[in-house]
Inverse folding.
């Protein structure tokens, strides 16, 4: 595995496109990688050779630790704050607008924005190591941007619990019981085998039916371009609050 951050796409037989993102800091993603990830998902969605997309990350025990902490602490004004939080908003909207079905492959922990990415896939499989946490309230922000995607997948009661238990990981089995994961596998090897098997099964289905059912799945989210932009603005404002500055300074010193 490379130690340099990347987003890459690899198309397998039957038109299965694997989109992989990676950052050496536990897959905490800077704006440049988030932008490239959103663009890659959108491009794969328009590629006639692509039938089904698998969305995955590199590394072993962390699927995605959210957005780059270094970029978060460097925010100086509301405009920069909103731009920062739009990183994951753009990825979520790319998944939503992509006409191809997206299978999530979550091999390890998902935190913050990582939970949002998992929730934005159409069918998500994970290992038993794929615990989840929405930690935003700990630093005085809140999961405003990823909230619509997470709530859509697991419901408001579970989203509320996950949001308020901001310093606690929930197990992969908990996430499965709430509908975030469809299956929980014992190992990464078993996960990869099952993900590929399911992708191949989907490729055998009528492509017109797949495209039509994708629209049905996301019915009612047509306002997300504006909604997620508004939510990013809320986070961009809160990150400049005195509470959040103090909270972030504690992490910086740790």
């Amino acid at each position: 595995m490379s130690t340099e951050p990347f987003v890459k796409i690899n198309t397998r037989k039957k038109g299965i496109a694997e989109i992989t993102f990676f950052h050496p800091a536990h897959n905490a993603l800077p704006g440049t990688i988030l932008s490239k990830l959103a663009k890659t998902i959108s491009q794969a969605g328009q590629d006639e050779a692509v039938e089904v997309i698998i969305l995955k990350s590199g590394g072993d025990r962390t699927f995605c630790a959210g957005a780059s902490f270094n970029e978060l602490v460097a925010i100086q004004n509301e405009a920069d704050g909103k731009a920062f939080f739009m990183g994951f908003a753009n990825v979520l909207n790319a998944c939503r607008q992509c006409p191809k079905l997206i299978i999530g492959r979550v091999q390890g922990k998902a935190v913050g924005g990582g939970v949002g990415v998992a929730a934005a896939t159409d069918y998500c499989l994970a290992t038993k190591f794929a615990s989840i946490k929405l930690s935003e309230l700990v630093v005085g922000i809140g999961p405003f941007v990823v909230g619509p995607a997470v709530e859509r997948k697991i419901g408001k009661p579970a989203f509320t619990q996950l949001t308020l238990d901001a310093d606690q990981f929930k197990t992969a089995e908990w996430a499965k019981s709430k509908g975030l994961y469809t299956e929980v596998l014992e190992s990464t090897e078993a996960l990869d085998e099952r993900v590929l098997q399911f992708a191949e099964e989907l490729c055998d289905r009528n492509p017109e039916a797949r495209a039509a059912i994708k629209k049905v799945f996301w019915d009612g989210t047509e306002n997300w371009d504006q909604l997620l932009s508004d939510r990013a603005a809320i986070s961009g404002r809160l990150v400049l609050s005195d509470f959040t500055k103090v909270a972030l300074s504690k992490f910086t010193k740790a």
About this structure: Residues 32 and 114 are 16 Å apart (CA to CA).
